[in-house]
Amino acid sequence: MTEALQTHYKIAPASNETGYKSYEAGSFRFTRDEYFVSIVWPKGAHTMAADGFMRAMMRTVAWGFFYGTLSYDPVFGTTNHYGIVDMFAGTYHPVFKENGRDHLEKFKAEDLLELFRDLVDDWTNEGYDPFAAPGEDDAGQPWGRKNGNNADAVTRIRVTANRMVGLPGDAEVRTDANGFPQNRMFADVSSDRPLVEAEPGFEGEVAAFNLYDYLSRSDVTWNPSVCSVVKESLFCPTSEEFILPVEHGNDRCEWFVQLSDEITWEVKDKNTGKPRSRIVMRAGDVACMPADIRHQGYSPKRSMLLVWENASPRIPDMIQSGEAPVVAVQF
Amino acid sequence: MSEYKTVFGGLNDFTPGGVDAIDDNPKNYVFSNVFDVASRSAPYERVAVGKNLEYVMEALRAEGQSPWYVCAHDEFALCMDGEVEIHLVKPDDADALVDPDSEGAVVLDEAPDGRKMGRIVLRRGHQALLPGGGAYRFEAGAPSVILTQTIQGPATVERWAEICQSESRPAA
To answer: What is the rounded distance in angstroms from the CA atom of residue A139 to the CA atom of residue A132?
Structure first.
């Protein structure tokens, strides 16, 4: 591990052969070809298929490194320390670790994010949408030599309501008219609206919206958006299809409510990756991911998942000191 | 090929999954089902189904009229089954009813004096703001289910051992 904050960033010109730029952050180097992404660090190298890497990198950028650890696979990933980010290879893989082949460097989050944004833009070809599930008609293909880009797809802004979706001046509801048709797998979801009768003077406080309709019109997968806020308690519902592109390692307890259909979660030990549990969640099910695990979800049909976060920045330190629990509730 | 069917479940139509613990304690996941909890609750018991330090999610069986509640901060109500009507009132003296620094919903003994704010009718999937400093009452003609987003307060009921999965259970 290198404790010093890395300041070396480099974007190398496009390869004559593939057309893709290559990238350096600290001593990590990223290149891609028609099918694969290569990651090289001083003590090793790693190869990933371009589709899985791009889906994971897209979430890293869209989520701003999110909470905790984003493992692209058992070897490579990032850990968010909120302002500072670890980038690692093999750090949470027992064999890499035991053989001294692991490597971790620290970066200023905003600087690394800027490099990753450029990478996502350059490595996304025309027609390919790394936010889409591969079965969607407009998902496109990540393969091949450099061929245009898809800036509209990769620069989507993650919705973060200040109070609640639909309130005046807050995040807008989604409709056909503003470019959000229902997804093919949610065509049977009702678009009816709640009845709202506000007395004069209370129009901004007497409010409701159709959350299920809102989710049925999401044009992204595995991208939790803040829809309602109680202080640091955030309801972040999302539509899910295919596989969560990362193994998400928790730095706090994170709750799920399965609003529709079914997701299977593979849960592993956060540090070693050893299997711990397999959880099947169906409509109405509630479960908490403890703060010492990593999890990855599989959604065979597009489903609605309510992710519930406590966004307090104090929690990782509170867990470290024992002030906050690793398991949300003891009974 | 058939059309896709979205499964939402309901008070009389739910099939929970479960925790298959491989090398783990299934209790770690605090696994329950909102519809199952509501099916076994008295009307308007605010049963915590999620807890993250001071914050909670509560499952409510909505049936008939609820008491009036007041809360110092915003809360939200998501109707997950049935139909629920919400009446909102701005109390003339909210601070006398609830400490403005307090957390969680407080049950009132009677309807508060104040200005009528409005009325909302939620059906499945609809989410309403319960604005901080306001008083509200739920009403449901038939058993329905509400999930709240709030902070643990005097009206919150905790009975984790009764509602949560304790033994490893591979989902059928």
So the answer is: 5
CA distances in angstroms from A187 to A179, A191, A215, B3, B5, listed in the order given: 16, 10, 11, 9, 9
CB atoms within 10 A of CB A225: 23
Contact B80 A209 (CB under 8 A): no
Would you say B33 and A286 are in contact if contact means Cβ atoms under 8 Å apart? yes
pLDDT digits (tens, 9 = 90+) for B9-38: 999 999 999 999 999 999 999 999 999 999
- Say yes or no for a CB contact (<8 Å) between B118 and A228: no
Residues of chain A in contact with residue B122, where contact means CB-CB under 8 angstroms, are 194, 208
- Inter-chain residue contact B27 with A331, CB threshold 8 Å: yes
- What residues of chain A lie within 8 A of the CB of B149, using their CB? 228, 230, 233, 235, 308
Query: Where is A10: in which H helix or E strand?
Result: strand A9-12
Q: Calculate the dihedral angle through the C-alpha atoms of A198, A203, A208, A214, rounding to the nearest 10 degrees.
A: 140
Amino acid A70 reads L
CA–CA distances in Å: residue A113 to residues A59, A61, A184, B172:
11, 6, 33, 43
Average pLDDT for B79-94: 97
Residues of chain B found within 8 Å of residue A227, distances taken between Cβ atoms: 127
ipTM: 0.98
- Check: CB of residue B105 under 8 Å from CB of residue B157: no
Hey, is the C-beta of B107 within 8 angstroms of any chain A C-beta? no
> Cα–Cα distance between B123 and A158 in angstroms, integer?
27
